[in-house]
Amino acid sequence: MTDQAASLRVIRGDRRDPLSPAPRRERAIAITGGKGGVGKSTIAVGLATAYARAGARTLMVDADFGMADLNLLLGVAPSRSLLDALDGTPVDDVVVSAHGIALLPALNGSYALAMMDGAARRRTLELVEALAGRFDTVVLDVAAGIGASQATFAAAASDAVVVVNPEPLSMADAYACLKVLATHHRVEHAFVVPNRVSGQAQADDIVGRLSDLVARFLDLRLTPLPPVPADPAVSEAAHLGVPLLCHRPDAPAARGIARVARALDAIAPPDARADAARGFWRRHLAVAGEMP
Predict the structure, then answer these.
(1) Total H helices, total E strands in the chain
(2) Domains of the chain
(3) Taking CA 283 as the corner, what is the angle to CA 275 and CA 154, rounded to the nearest 5 degrees?
(4) How far apart are CA 109 and CA 64, in angstroms?
(5) What is the pLDDT of residues 147-206, one digit of tens each?
(6) Helix, strand and coil in the chain, % to nearest 5
(7) Could you tell me if 236 and 270 are in contact, meaning their C-beta atoms sit under 8 angstroms apart?
(8) Which of 59, 129, 152, 200 has the fewest Cβ atoms surrounding its Cβ within 10 A?
(9) 3-state SS assignment for residue 246
């Protein structure tokens, strides 16, 4: 309990902020969920903001390669994208900054990125890994679906976080995502965030049903994270192009996301911490080797 409590504190001189995550632990977090529209990007931007505000050097990767929207949520208009980096533009000329976060943007409507082959996926991992050495935290916002690109990037990060909301289709698609990660990429552990819930009872019901399915059919450990409540402030922040934790840090959803960030640091399993000590990727070489 002492180690967990310590991981929830950020020390600035002799001041301690009990609401901030630990800033300097190396972390690579992939946010996924199978279904579009469940709030993956909101959670991803929120986590990146929480870690950046705590003092971590934070990189976001828009891994929704052909339908990118992190630039809109962060209020920036990049002139270049990952596609330029894959074509030879120095990656430093592609990365943009906003709200204390560095962003490697993708490109909305790019067929080439949406349909990237194994060589392009491998090259993208290499680009991100080269950047990651300059950062404490990497957050990947993974596209909806269970295709090769989505599963590759969700499986590569040291922590995979599956976002699920109360919609029945969200539950089914979250399970499908976990099934692909477990059976095709040998992922042994994942986190789940109940999003847009009405309260703790609904969050517990969602996690309970998903956990039952996973326990029955998959060789996978599933760890629940704190729920994020439904909150109109999320739409307000998206409309303004400002991260929720900057726009309304005291809003219920912002406080929920901040709890998720703290919990990830406090309860990340020992194997994930060991992998993080060796680098950001859980299975970089293995995943790259599996790419067709």
Answers:
(1) 14, 11
(2) 25-290 (3.40.50.300)
(3) 105
(4) 10
(5) 888 888 999 898 999 999 999 999 999 999 999 999 998 999 999 999 999 999 999 999
(6) 50, 20, 35
(7) no
(8) 200
(9) helix
